[in-house]
Design brief:
CATH class: Mainly Beta
Family: Belongs to the iron/ascorbate-dependent oxidoreductase family.
Bound molecules: 2-oxoglutaric acid, fe (ii) ion
CATH topology: Jelly Rolls
Keywords: Iron, Metal-binding, Oxidoreductase
Protein name: 2OG-Fe(II) oxygenase
GO molecular function: metal ion binding; oxidoreductase activity
Length: about 325
């Protein structure tokens, strides 16, 4: 099904794109139950073209399930450093699964060392198949960690596919547009822990340095501590205040490229000066490793000529990781 959401505006009629000081909250129930997909698509279009970020509510993932994943995540990060380092991401080669210590991945290496620690899992494979596809590393004697985090990952894959239907509709594409590019998509389920920072906090060390996400779509659960900051089109930082029961959704570079900058993959960062430990659970989904992403014809006009060359999803994503992971940099 295609719908006429995208007006083909004469370039002379274009005005400066609206900026924002608040990230919109979108109720996605009518998208999920099919009762009014287009009204949700319209809200998605506004959010992604103006802010690149939105909160979603009524997403169908039970609150106590999300809380139980936060609970095992907290318990994981409380393990002794030696146990966590036994699961270090460097041991997974290019599958990029496992534990990353503070300063082990610096998302904005020109400015910032990242204080966060992370744990990454992805689609389970018995052997290393290539970048992003291999075996997960699991902590021993912690079966509920594996069960809950992997179960959460599966639920996120399903939710992401539904959200991508809404994004396709918002671009006047058939709702299954992304499916053909996502037969075996790269996905990463990440757990994050941000220790609080006290005293003087400068740009050289913060929770996570300013970055755009690399792939298609991110679904983030955050606890109630706060500290996420999002840059708007004017270059101002806006707080991504926690809203109970919602996920924060943002698009990554690949959707910005696909839409020729009509949709924005915002810069964002985390600065945790709350005095409390902060935990978040981002999920990232992309396209297949070999999928080619090139600007949509409908997003190219005389005033907005082609801005990007086609890239393959895997090459783009791996390149961004190689620039930020200490262990990949060492491997040369
Ligand atoms: O923890 C957060 O709120 C944001 C995390 C993030 O931006 C990322 O992992 O890419
Ligand atoms: Fe991010």
């Amino acid at each position: 099904m295609t719908v006429d959401l995208v007006a083909k505006l004469d370039d002379k009629l274009r005005a400066k794109r609206e900026s924002f000081d608040k990230i919109p909250v979108v109720d996605i129930a009518p998208l999920l139950d099919g009762s009014d997909k287009l009204s949700v698509a319209r809200q998605i279009r506004w959010a992604l073209s103006n802010t690149g970020f939105m909160y979603v509510k009524n997403h169908g993932i039970p609150r106590d399930f999300v809380d139980s994943v936060f609970d095992v995540s907290r318990r994981f990060f409380e393990l002794p450093m030696s146990e966590k380092m036994d699961l270090h991401v460097g041991k997974s080669d290019v599958a990029l699964r496992g534990y990353i210590e503070p300063f082990g991945e610096n998302t904005d290496p020109t400015k910032t060392k990242d204080l966060k620690e992370c744990f990454d899992i992805g689609p389970e494979r018995s052997t290393l198949e290539g970048p992003f596809f291999g075996a997960n590393q699991w902590p021993s004697d912690f079966p509920e960690f594996r069960e809950l985090t992997y179960g959460y990952h599966q639920k996120m894959v399903d939710l992401a596919k539904k959200l991508l239907k809404g994004i396709a509709l918002s671009l006047d594409l058939p709702e299954n547009h992304f499916e053909a590019l996502m037969r075996n998509p790269i996905s990463i389920q990440r757990l994050l822990h941000y220790p609080p920072q006290r005293g003087y906090v400068g740009e050289n060390i913060i929770g996570i340095g300013a970055h755009t996400d690399y792939g298609n779509l991110t679904i983030l659960a955050q606890d109630d501590v706060g500290g996420l900051q999002v840059m708007n089109r004017d270059g101002d930082w806006v707080e991504g205040t926690p809203i109970p029961g919602t996920f924060v959704i943002n698009i990554g570079d690949l959707v910005q490229r696909l839409t020729n900058d009509v949709y924005l993959a915002n810069m964002h960062r985390v600065v945790n000066t709350s005095g409390r430990e902060r935990y978040s659970i981002p999920f990232f989904i992309d396209a297949d490793f070999d999928a080619t992403i090139a600007p949509l014809a409908s997003c190219v006009t005389a005033a907005n000529p082609v801005r990007y060359k086609p890239v393959t999803c895997g090459a783009h994503k791996f390149g961004r990781f190689a620039a930020s992971y200490a262990h990949l940099a060492k491997a040369g």
